[in-house]
Amino acid sequence: MSDARKTILVIAQHNKPEALRMATGLTLLDDEVRVSVLGELGDDQDTLMQMEALEFAEAPVESVAVETEEGMGRLADSILGADAVYVI
């Protein structure tokens, strides 16, 4: 195993609560975890609980408007800056 710290990007696209849950689990590693949410998050209990856990872990969660050129550019930059990308 490498001692180098990695940047992990989780893209929440289809199953957003599951993507947040996965990102929360990844915060247990010593790597940097970032989340990009495509569109809007729901306000259900499961989503709120995962958002609270990610906030506690200081994992940034960013909402991305993929229908705009700026949003697509930000998403592309995030992907290029990550060592690993998960799309859920």
SSE topology sketch:
Elements: E1 7-12, H1 16-26, E2 32-38, H2 45-56, E3 61-64, H3 69-80, E4 84-87
Parallel strand pairs: 1-2, 1-4, 2-3
Could you characterize the architecture of this molecule?
This protein has a single domain, classed as 3-Layer(aba) Sandwich (Rossmann fold), CATH 3.40.50. Helices cover 40% and strands 24% of the residues. It has helices at residues 16-26, 45-56, 69-80; strands at residues 7-12, 32-38, 61-64, 84-87. α1 runs parallel beside α2 (45-56). The mean pLDDT is 94.
Structural class: alpha/beta
Shape: flat
Total number of domains: 1
Helix content: 25-40%
Number of helices: 3
Supply the CATH architecture.
Answer: 3-Layer(aba) Sandwich
Q: Class, according to the CATH hierarchy?
A: Alpha Beta
**Radius of gyration over alpha carbons?**
13 Å
List keywords for this structure.
Rossmann fold; four-stranded parallel beta sheet; 3 helices; 40% helix
Explain briefly what this protein structure is.
The protein is an alpha/beta fold. The protein has helices spanning 16-26, 45-56, 69-80, and strands spanning 7-12, 32-38, 61-64, 84-87.
